[in-house]
Amino acid sequence: MDDLKKYIDENHDRYLEELFELIRIPSVSSKEDHKEHMYKAAEWVKDKLLKDGADKAEVLETQGHPVVYGEKMLNPDWPTVLVYGHYDVQPAEPFDLWKSPPFEPEIRDGKIFARGANDDKGQMFMHFKSFEYLLKTNQMTCNVKFMIEGEEEIGSPSLGKFCEDNKEKLQADVILVSDTSMIGPDTPSITTGLRGLAYMEVEVTGPGHDLHSGLYGGAVDNPVNVLCEMIASLRDENNHITIPGFYDDVLELSDEERADMARAPFDLEAFKKEINIEEVAGEKGYSTMERTGIRPSLDVNGIWGGYTEKGAKTILPSKAHAKISMRLVPHQKHKKIEQLFIKHFESMAPKSVKVKAEFLHGGEGYVSPTDTVAYQAASKAFETTYGIKPIPVRSGGSIPIISLFENVLGIKSILMGFGLDSDAIHSPNENYSLNQFRKGLETIPYFYKYFAEMKARK
Amino acid sequence: MDDLKKYIDENHDRYLEELFELIRIPSVSSKEDHKEHMYKAAEWVKDKLLKDGADKAEVLETQGHPVVYGEKMLNPDWPTVLVYGHYDVQPAEPFDLWKSPPFEPEIRDGKIFARGANDDKGQMFMHFKSFEYLLKTNQMTCNVKFMIEGEEEIGSPSLGKFCEDNKEKLQADVILVSDTSMIGPDTPSITTGLRGLAYMEVEVTGPGHDLHSGLYGGAVDNPVNVLCEMIASLRDENNHITIPGFYDDVLELSDEERADMARAPFDLEAFKKEINIEEVAGEKGYSTMERTGIRPSLDVNGIWGGYTEKGAKTILPSKAHAKISMRLVPHQKHKKIEQLFIKHFESMAPKSVKVKAEFLHGGEGYVSPTDTVAYQAASKAFETTYGIKPIPVRSGGSIPIISLFENVLGIKSILMGFGLDSDAIHSPNENYSLNQFRKGLETIPYFYKYFAEMKARK
Fold first, then answer.
1. Does the predicted interface ipTM exceed a cut of 0.85?
2. CA closest to A30 among chain B residues
3. Domains of chain B listed by start with CATH number
4. Please, what is the average pLDDT of chain B?
5. Could you give the percent of chain A with pLDDT greater than 90?
6. What is the CA radius of gyration of chain B?
């Protein structure tokens, strides 16, 4: 593949133009009024796959946003790679914190700034262009399928059924995904573990309507105060989650495994500086890497209640709400955690209020072995580009669908992520470094090459 | 005053038309974009006072919204009554909970529904019409002054200086105010105590921007979780406020005084049913009436942080905010409480976050004696209308300006409120019963009569 770098050089401007077209479609999956943008983005992906060389590509209906399926079947004897990605993005709010409009990509300081620049439009697009390159230069050595969904950011509620209904069509030797980060720009890594997720929304109702806080304050329980107390009680002084049974299924790592993990490079001062905090905090007895990699966590993702505009309004609010999510580790089942949470939340509510807790979405964690052909092929591809072997890491994030792929399709996934932790995905000013984008374009084609070679040798 | 009821009958429709004109002006003092409405309401009040018989009325500038001053000086030997009221109202949000538009008054079930129907436009207006009646029928026996402000709902920030600057003009024997409630439609009461207020806004900042809750959750303190924990820690298991020094100046009542208070009729079941709660809650060792009447309280009036729209966004938010106010009892000074709160809030913040706490507004509590001529005149006026003596009660609400009047002008106030606790002031569907409105119109003229008679006898 001596021509790879030259091909990228010659086509780079066009690549960006194409990617920017996709980014400009505000395909926010959680917003009901964005439905037309979801179809527009799906059609765009379909057209792009056909143009890049797919024999066939189609927008397939699901119970929710559509899935784009595409394929290039070259030789029945060759191994088949199924590329997974998602064309949907997180909401861009709060808009006023963006330096440039979230759906108008802008290059500054060698980075693309936009919602979806990385997650996952930018990373997914590297696969489209690697596919184009290998086909145009007659170097493709695998059959390739694409499954590009539109509901990843809302927990892929329709993809399970889609996989069940399309098992035959989706058969492959490996699923290839770029939707994660690597340790640093010069330190490649392959994500071998992901956390699961259980995302809840709770409502606490006190009085039937907002009350005057002077006339009633002190004699009627305030649902915001009560919600704060309930949330506070979900963690103890060691930052251990207090929901009964929460840790029952947590996979405890051996001292040896923990020592292995501790060998991954990690600069605590740089970590703190990057996100502008004075001190890290988390479960007692675990390192920062362990707290996100192998331990579950609980975060309030949003809270609201009462008067939140400028100035003072002296009310005792009727209702308080919060979105609370838990990241889960392998063996914790999100459905069980969801039930434990609801039971605990309802049982600890004082009689002075009514509470509701509902499950919004979730997924299981995942652990990938490192002794598979696919892992070795990915490792060698990174080594070819970076000159060093990538480090296997457990990520704190969740791609719930990865464990679903294994359960429904029986296929393992390889998580070749080229993002950086500083890319601010899910945040204002999400960005994707042009350098990382380039490195992805240089690395992915080698995965196909090595995967085919290693498969053939076996 | 045999003609009083007849006069009201004949003019009632016009009274409502006039009041509705005022209600239709959305004079929300806390909103910066309502400035023109504040002037419009002030001009309306000035014109009305002149039309109702004032010799002079003027809109006077302050550092904030204007004060309307009016007077009718009939005889230098007569006592002078200064009527206080406010033409500003609370914000009407959330609009979608109103059954009819907040600034379009509507009569349903014998009640006027609108923002300001009671607080304070409706109650203040009873004074304008009592003034009109007494002048038109030549039965006025006092000199009358009016001071109608436009900043009561934001803590009357400009009225202190206004009183300082206009001490001479405002000289009077008593200040008469209708801006409180009575116990029930058949149980008149006079408010003899008010709580003070210290209203704070706090901000907790964690990471410099919103983070992905999967990649960081568990290793970085979440400012919403931290804020909840800080708020939870402000009360102990007995609902005692934990801010060091908070209770130092609280006036403790004697057992005898508490027994006196307990004689006021109070139906706990009706109270709970009215606001739709299963159980009351509050400081251990005190009754519901005591919890709002003689004990301080702490309420979160609003809280917000992170993602609060529909659906799920997996962020670890950068910031969390809350509006927290404390109701104070006599002898607690709001400036001291404000300092204690800020010191405590800052000192309990973990090093993983930064906190800011600022004072929005406040005022002192007030206690009024019952052995004054003014109290006795008000008591007799109620008795004339209702056939029973009114009960002196301590209200949980705050009218910070009442204690300021005493300190700056040296004048005691009489709080002749005709509201009911069910009027939902400060809430959606604020209302004022036509029956209460009528009873106010029937009672207030007698105050002037008895006050002049009792003063003359002294």
1. no
2. B311
3. 4-194+365-457 (3.40.630.10), 196-250+296-362 (3.30.70.360)
4. 95
5. 84
6. 23
